[in-house]
Design brief:
Elements lengths: L2 H19 L6 H31 L5 H9 L26 E3 L2 E9 L2 E5 L6 E5 L1
Antiparallel strand pairs: 1-2, 2-3, 3-4
Helix pairs in contact: 1-2
Length: 131
């Protein structure tokens, strides 16, 4: 692929990304490419698109019925407190018990530091913090 083609692709991604950014947060390949283009030009756009595509596809928001279930789930009698901040994309410590969500094997939840969080069961990565 030549530099001119990469430049055109970056320009197209930036244009679509900036238009999309007006209505919501730009993530995934378009957001990564737009950010990469600003930082590193055409080569940055290519690298940012790849990184953004991988990162954007890993953490998709859970369905609304999962969020509702976690919001309404009864809190455990014992309070779980950890020193680490609960961060989307980072795994919960092994000391935190994650509870499966019925009929939704892709999701589990925990209540940590008085925050309800939805996690991916196998990796324990936080998908969403419920406000």
């Amino acid at each position: 692929m030549n530099i001119k083609a990469v430049g055109i692709a970056a320009a197209l991604l930036m244009a679509s990304g900036s238009a999309f950014a007006q209505s919501s947060t730009v993530t995934g390949a378009a957001g990564g490419a737009a950010t990469g283009a600003v930082v590193g030009g055409p080569v940055g756009a290519a690298v940012g698109g790849i990184v953004g595509g991988v990162a954007g596809s890993v953490i998709d928001p859970p369905p609304q019925k999962v969020v509702t279930y976690v919001q309404q789930a009864p809190a455990p009698k014992t309070r779980v407190v950890v020193k680490e901040k609960v961060v989307v994309g980072q795994p919960l410590p092994e000391t935190v018990v994650v509870t499966p969500i019925p009929d939704e094997p892709k999701y589990s939840y925990a209540i940590v530091n008085d925050e309800r969080v939805i996690v991916e069961p196998s990796s324990r990565k936080v998908i969403q913090v419920i406000q």
